[in-house]
Amino acid sequence: MATLGKRKGLYCHGRPRILSAGPHGPARCFRMLRNRLLFGVLMGLGLVAVILIDGWMDGSITADPSDDRPVKGLLFLCLVCGLMIPAHRELAAMAKAKAIDLAMPLVTIGSILTCSTPYWPARGQPYWGLYACLVIAGTLICLLAYLGLRKGPDGVLAAAGAGILAVAYLGLHSAFIVQMRLQWGLWVLLMYLWVIKGADIGAYTLGMLIGRHKLLPTISPGKTWEGLVGAICAGTGVAILFARLCGIINVWLAICFGVCFAVLGQVGDLAESVLKRDARIKDASNLVPGFGGILDLMDSPLIPAPWAYLFFVAAGLGR
After folding, report:
1. What is the domain range of residue 310?
2. What average pLDDT does range 28-42 have in this prediction?
3. Are the C-beta atoms of residues 268 and 304 closer than 8 Å to each other?
4. What percent of the chain is predicted at pLDDT more than 90?
5. pLDDT confidence tier of residue 47, bands split at 50, 70 and 90
6. In angstroms, what CA-CA distances link 176 with 4, 61, 289, 294?
7. Is 238 among the domain residues?
8. Residue 26: inside a domain
9. What letter does residue 123 receive in the DSSP assignment?
10. For residues 208 and 37, what is the distance between their CA atoms, to the nearest angstrom?
11. How many domains does the chain have?
């Protein structure tokens, strides 16, 4: 993992990732843009395939959110829980850079249990949140006992805090995404994920091509105001497309959804950037070529998930 440069607004080794970087800057940047878009679209299509297979397996492929057939979504749950393991390893590496023991086994189990809580009540009823709170509270108790007995009181405050941060960040936010799948079916889930990821693609593309004005250089040197505009345009376009094709929400609500969650997706990206900056790393890992780590893929959909759930509830979707 590359170490961040010390100078303000730079990525690594003091070299900014902008079109003017170096004599071959434009060619290199366009090559990076091409590769990232190619792999991004392929991964996006792969995710769509998994979700559609998931819907085919339980018979829930329908554009009507009020369809009352049982929705299971177990394949999607397995995918999310599977991603938890490398994501926690990346968080543990960040914590280790700050001399903090993340207590990986307990934290990972706590996150997976929290993520699965929408399945605990019958058919994903809203009171699953009570179970999520109980799991997080139980994880905290186990963390305090484990850390205290293993190492004594030194460092328990930081380690327990980092552990609960990991469970809330990965487990709780993922639970809202799982709940959307359970409560409203796969088309609402696809709309949410594609609006967020479409905004990511729009932000990266426009920011790479014409980005000049830094958004928050001390947190994420690559983010630009131009990229934010690209995110809003792309996210809104995807939301309108889903509204037209699937009738999930009306066009005006789709515009509102696209704008709000394109911005919130970038907030999710910035939230992970804060953690990476604190750990003095550029990417969470090098597991995904061109993107970084699993956290670098999951960051933008995680933070907005509770608010997307509330948005769909307020919009009056289905059961």
Report:
1. 34-314
2. 72
3. yes
4. 48
5. confident
6. 33, 20, 28, 18
7. yes
8. no
9. G
10. 12
11. 1
Q: For residue 289, what pLDDT is reported?
A: 72
Contacts of residues 76-79 at CB distance under 8 Å and 24 or more positions apart, as own/partner, are 76/50, 76/51, 76/178, 76/181, 76/186, 76/189, 77/115, 77/116, 77/119, 77/178, 77/181, 79/50
* Token code pair at residue 301: 């959909």
The most confident of the ranges 19-23, 125-129, 139-143 is 139-143
Give residue 217's pLDDT. 86
Contact between 220 and 269 (Cβ < 8 Å): yes
Task: Supply 187's token pair.
Answer: 């088309």
Sign of CA dihedral 157, 140, 143, 109: negative
Residue 253 has pLDDT above 90, yes or no: yes
Angle CA 73–79–80, to nearest 5: 90
Does 39 map to a domain? yes
Return the ∠ at Cα 294 (arms to 292 and 300), rounded to 5°. 90
Predicted TM-score of the model (pTM)? 0.85
Start-to-end CA span in the chain (Å): 45
Structure tokens at 52: 């559609």
Residue 58 clears pLDDT 80, i.e. is over it: no
Return the DSSP state at 5.
P
Per-residue pLDDT, averaged over 38-61, amounts to 80
Angle 183-56-61 (CA atoms, 0-180°, nearest 5)?
A: 50
Alpha-carbon span 108 to 83, nearest angstrom: 11
CB atoms within 10 A of CB 31: 11
